[in-house]
Amino acid sequence: MGVIKDWIRRYFSDPQVVILAVFLVVGLATVLLAGRHLVPVIASLIIAYLLEGLIQPLQRVGTPRMLAVGIVFLVFFLVLLALLFWLLPVLTRQATQLLQEVPAMLSASQTLILSLPEKYPTIFSEVEIEKILDQIRREAGLFTDKMLRQTLSSVVGVITLVVYIVLMPLLVFFFLKDKEKLMGWIRKHLPRERGLASRVWQGVDVQLGNFIRGKFWEILIVWGASYLTFIFMGLSFSLLLAFLVGISVLVPYIGAAVMTFPVALVAYFQFGWTGDLAWIILAYLIIQMLDGNVLVPLLFSEVVNLHPIAIIVAVLFFGGIWGVWGVFFAIPLAILLQGVLSAWPRQPEEDAPGQ
User: Fold this and answer.
1) Predicted confidence (pLDDT) at residue 283 exceeds the cutoff of 90
2) pLDDT value at position 352?
3) According to the 3-state scheme, what is the secondary structure of the chain?
4) What's the rounded Cα separation, in Å, for the pair 20 and 13?
5) Is 48:176 a contact under the CB 8 Å cutoff?
6) Who contacts 243 (Cβ-Cβ below 8 Å, separation ≥6)?
7) How much is the pTM?
8) 203 or 237: whose pLDDT is higher?
9) CB of 312 within 8 A of CB of 254?
10) pLDDT in tens, 196-236
């Protein structure tokens, strides 16, 4: 019990620490219990964070905030319209074409697998090959059933998407327009003794803002570089694959590893075992290497670096709670947690007896 008392004295002796702990518990409970329902709000806050980085430079050169908000929001709205009416239809068309080619890919895979016992009789037996083919057929059947269920539920998905498309721009606009009013309302309902919580939030606020804006530029650069590379090499579904490669940087390490398989698979079924396949895989690996060793250090020099183990644990934990959205928000939440732990005050340990 003495160890526990010493630990509580060291980390919770300051009353402001208790206030900060209450804020964290209430925030965590809100996210856990209502996180799925608040996805449009959270996503709008992230977009507002991103756009705030464009508004502040305009204000520094003398532009009134309302005018700066109007200019930035207009650009954002035009980009959103371009995404909805140009990018989304192209991505949907390419995704549909890719799904239509899945049966042919499976058939070619089956032919390739059946030839393995003849080419490598000492490594593969016919019994093992039959087991592999049975597994492929089962997975293909499950994939078909899943796609059918998603098709049947697509009406609900479309309605939800329309609601998000309408709600999110409105939320983003009011978050930007009424930022000071909203912050004033929040401060009005918070305890007066919140100096520690304010200091912690200021540090986390800078970290999250830099991270979100850095990720936005990283996605655009990796997406553009991948698209130009795939187009130059004549790879099918270039825009779709490049878009997925760009989005994959939201999940460091894991995203790059996962996207290796679809890029290599499409390249293999288009070019076979040729030099073109090797060149495409090599180009993809070079893009990932430049992203990790050049682009990330440049964009995130002011962001606290997370250990790869922390990133993987965060992705697994939040992904298990909220699915795809949890995977996307895992890194910002991990940065938030690390910022809080780094700023958490503690009493100095007492010297041991006899020292």
Assistant:
1) yes
2) 43
3) CHHHHHHHHHHHCCHHHHHHHHHHHHHHHHHHHHCCCCHHHHHHHHHHHHHHHHHHHHHHCCCCHHHHHHHHHHHHHHHHHHHHHHHHHHHHHHHHHHHHCHHHHHHHHHHHHHCHHHHCCCCCCHHHHHHHHHHHHHHHHHHHHHHHHHHHCHHHHHHHHHHHHHHHHHHHHHHHHCHHHHHHHHHHCCCCCCHHHHHHHHHHHHHHHHHHHHHHHHHHHHHHHHHHHHHHCCCCCHHHHHHHHHHHCCCCCHHHHHHHHHHHHHHHHHHCCCHHHHHHHHHHHHHHHHHHHHHHHHHCCCCCCCCHHHHHHHHHHHHHHHCHHHHHHHHHHHHHHHHHHHHCCCCCCCCCCCC
4) 12
5) yes
6) 87, 91, 223, 227
7) 0.71
8) 237
9) yes
10) 666 777 767 777 777 777 888 889 999 999 999 999 999 99
Distance CA 309, CA 297 (A): 18
Q: What is the C-alpha to C-alpha distance for residues 202 and 252, in angstroms, rounded to an integer?
A: 25
- Which of 52, 36, 41, 39 lies closest to 216 in space, CA to CA? 52
Please say whether the beta carbons of 267 and 254 come within 8 A. Answer: no
d(CA 18, CA 24): 10
Give 351's Cβ-side CA count (13 Å radius): 3
